[in-house]
């Protein structure tokens, strides 16, 4: 999470998921290694991108404030997200 008024909350995929994505979707990568995705958490779906995170060697995506409000998500919560590439 990055703090501030418009704080961003990021979800890290597991290292195993990230390795599989790197192999299977290498040709889908765009600028900065991003991969376009659709995410669903609870009843909320939106389009965003996965980004490689060099520190964790995993892919991450942001959960926008509107989604966090609608799905009652707070920093540190465990969530289930369906990621579609």
Q: What can you tell me about this protein's structure?
A:
The protein has one domain. The protein has two helices and five strands. The model has no long low-confidence stretch (mean pLDDT 90). Strand 2 and strand 3 form a beta hairpin. Strands 1-4-3-2-5 form a five-stranded antiparallel beta sheet. With 85 residues, it is an alpha+beta fold.
Topology:
Layout: E1 9-12, H1 15-24, E2 35-41, E3 44-53, E4 58-63, H2 65-70, E5 82-84
Antiparallel strand pairs: 1-4, 2-3, 2-5, 3-4
Low-confidence stretches: none
Roughly how much helix do the residues carry, as a percent range? 10-25%
**Helix-strand pattern:** EHEEEHE
Number of domains: 1
Give the radius of gyration.
13 Å
Describe the strand arrangement of the main beta sheet, using strand numbers.
Answer: 1-4-3-2-5
The outline comes out as: globular
> Major beta sheet, specifics?
5 strands, antiparallel
Helix count, per DSSP?
2
Number of strands: 5
- Strand content bin: 35-45%
Class derived from helix and strand content: alpha+beta
**Whole-number average pLDDT?**
90
Kindly report how far apart the N and C termini lie.
23 Å
């Amino acid at each position: 999470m990055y703090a501030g008024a418009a704080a961003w909350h990021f979800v890290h995929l597991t290292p195993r998921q990230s390795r599989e994505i790197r192999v299977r979707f290498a040709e889908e990568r765009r600028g900065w290694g991003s991969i376009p995705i659709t995410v669903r958490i609870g009843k909320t779906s939106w389009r965003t991108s996965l980004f490689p995170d060099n520190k964790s060697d995993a892919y991450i995506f942001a959960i926008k404030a509107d989604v966090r409000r609608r799905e009652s998500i707070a920093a540190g919560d465990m969530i289930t997200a369906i990621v579609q590439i």
